[in-house]
Amino acid sequence: MSISRRTLLKASLTASAATLLTGRTGFAIAQDRKFNFKCAMNTPMTHTIYIRLAEAVERIKTQTDGKVIINLFPSSQLGSDTDVLGQVRAGALETVIMPGVVLANLVPMASLNSVGFAFKDYPAVWKAMDGGLGNHIRSHIAKTNLVVQDKIWDNGFRHITGWQAVNSPADLVGKKVRVPVSPVLLSLFKALGAAPAPINFNELYSALQTHVIDGQENPLTIISTGKLYEVQKFCAMTSHVWDGYWFMSNKKAWEALPAPWRTIVETNLAESAVAQRADSEKLNDTLKQELSTKGLTFSTPDTAPFRDALRKNGYYSEWQKKFGDEAWGHLEAAVGKLA
Asked: pTM to 2 decimals?
């Protein structure tokens, strides 16, 4: 009987050792794999998002001994924003970095931070987006077939350009203004009396050049890198919306990475996101002067009449209902009373 017990014990230990060996071997095999990810983005190579992201992917490549390579495809090379979002969800692309206002077509909560005239400055933005408001948005993105990184990148405050000056809501009435394919921005400009036109960014320059539309709205960095100053005359510093870029991965592709490598990717993306935020803020301080020398005439309208028009036309109450009381509570906790 004692021999039988020893035999059983030996067999048990052998099986356990085999299991452990298989686990270690399985991880070693995973470690030997190479991962070549593609990352779609709409910004050009001159944009701070591309520059800092390129630095991050180089560090990731080095720290994983060349096993994790993320290839960047700027300037919408892989398709429009809406196209590449579908490709990442389907697994045809592994990663994408895109604005929340565009992501909102899939995850409506991603435009919560883009409610008109919500944020007054950058400190308010980062406190909210790295805190409760950002966590609430990320929890909704996570319900899709996407894995979203913790730190959002800066797309800046959006301003209005046009062939004519915009100093009050009356100047927007009837004007064709390009906006991203974004419900919250479409609604905002409709409430201000404009005729918003949802056009993808890769079609924007030619639409302005041919006067198919009267104006557009974007951060100064996009106005600069997209050379929109060549096809517009005026810029109203309305700061009507702040938006950022979320870095997201296809869930299956992300989970295929060994855990230590996921940590390396997360750490480096967060580091570069914070650096890019600082770059963007500094750049905005100098871009106004630079763009003035390139032909844009600037104005800084009083934003109170714009907010009043939005309240009067039911914009805030409409979006409070759409987002729901819980989400709206997160927003107003960060920015104050809106509706």
From this structure: 0.82
